[in-house]
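Let us practice reading a record.
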Amino acid sequence: MTSLSLAKKIRRIAGNTIFSVLFTKRTTGEKRKMVCRLGVTKGVSGKGQHYDPIKYDLLTVFDVQKGEFRNICLDTLESFKAKGKEYAIRQGN
């Protein structure tokens, strides 16, 4: 599954609800569980990002625990849970 199709699937399933993800951080190699949300506009200036996150296999979300925007590394995403259902991601198909 490509990063773009995976990002679209997460957006379609999670919508504007809070969901969790489990992925491996690229910088340190450690596993990270994040509770996040899509569609948050608080603190957005309207200028946009200086790059396209999907070109780097990233999905920008709002980390509800830290109260800041973060990126999920889609190529190391293991699973996500939304609306009470867990979805396992198979990489390298």
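A brief commentary: The two ends are 7 Å apart (CA to CA).
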